[in-house]
Amino acid sequence: MPVYSLYSDGRGATINGFKIRELFVRPNAAEHKFFYGLNFEFSVNAKYWQSKRITSEVRPIVGLHLDSIDLIFNPIMDTNYTGGPGNLEFVPATRVAYKINKTWAVAAEEYADLGPLRQFMPIHDQFHEVWAVTDYKGKVVNVEAGIGIGATAGADRLTLKLMISRDLNHKGTP
Question: Is the pLDDT of residue 27 over 80?
């Protein structure tokens, strides 16, 4: 799928690259207290958008459903294929969500990039963003919207996200 920005510095609205993702999760994860999964991503990025042209990530997913609270941790490993395994970066993500009802949830999220595994960057240069997010799970479409605020100099000051998805059940219907 294309990665699109409404505004890229000096370019206006642009397509910034393409991503291919494959997600594997525990079957019927919503019905279990403990759940897990693994997401693989391969990206081709525009040079003006990201200095790393070809990137990939492996995103393990572990979480707990505790009644109306979800706790999710992703110990993500990222690479741009230069410098071998020593340049794998640790970019963890954490989410705490409160399910208001079957349709709506609110969440706090934190995204980070600590740098290469061989030696993390100084905290000032690391990427840390804290997010406020709301989720809507409808019969036909799901919507996730949020606002992220950078907590370190290495992060973006303000970021908005809007994700629209459609899930198919095991029979292939919404």
Answer: yes
Residue 45 token pair: 């990025």
Find the CATH number of the domain harbouring 47: 2.40.160
Residue 168 burial (CB count, 10 A): 8
Q: What are phi and psi of 99, to 5 degrees?
A: -85, 110
Residue 74 inside a domain? The answer is yes
Q: Please report whether residue 22 resides in a domain.
A: yes
pLDDT in tens, 100-136: 999 999 999 999 999 998 899 999 999 999 999 999 9
> Which stretch of DSSP H or E encloses residue 174?
none
Q: E strands along the chain, which residues?
A: 2-8, 12-25, 34-45, 54-66, 69-74, 77-79, 89-90, 93-99, 104-113, 115-116, 127-137, 142-150, 158-165
Range of the domain at 145: 2-165
